[in-house]
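Q: Structure tokens for this one, please.
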Amino acid sequence: MEIEKLIQEKISEIESTEHVKILHAVESGSRAWGFASTNSDYDVRFIYVRTKQDYLKLNPVSDVINWQLDEVFDINGWDLKKALCLLKNSNPTVFEWNLSPIVYQTTDFWQNHQEIINQYFSCKAGIYHYLNTAKTSYQKFLTSNQIKLKKYFYVLRPILACRWILKYKKPAPMLFTELTNSMLEPEMQNLIQNLLNRKINSSESSTSNPIPELNTYLLRNLNLLEKQANSLSDDKNQDWNMLNQMFLDGLDSFC
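A: Here is the predicted structure, written as tokens:
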């Protein structure tokens, strides 16, 4: 069975078993970023809505569905209410799911609310998220004698995402090639492309000796981006009204 068809069946199974409607389901992680290894798993993420009756219960209903986690699949999703509350704080994960190039299922409801979703993007929040991700990954994964190939991209991609946000004032694209084509200096292109080819054509556990030129490049950008991030003013959208209405629209889409 083709993997996409199997994922579609799992989505239908979730809806039937959990009594929810999945509003948007996508691939997240290395496959959506465009640098999956030969044995990468499938990171399926979705946003769902329950019935009105479920939201009116006195006993709280979980706002997360953890469906499957094994060597092939990592499938989980967020309740619409949870997703919208995170959107209010400009949580970058919501924007990444929204911009994934691999969409397994979506709805008119989700597509018709794109303008509202984009109004809650905060440049400052986005940059701090990616900057902290890159800094943490660098310290955790790039300071040893042997480095997993994929960990270089776990630092480089968020750095390029920060640079994209600074330049375009909007969420960064998921595809790594779109970021490199737009934000990576010409003198770094060959090095990164060669590393990318090695990563794609090897297993998830493949390692490399440290690459001094790349480490220097990453550290220089981390220091520069931290100074730029600290100079930004707060730009979060404080309006709940549009999100409240979007939630009500989502409830209506279940019927």
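A few notes: The radius of gyration is 19 Å. Residues 149-168 form the longest helix (20 residues).
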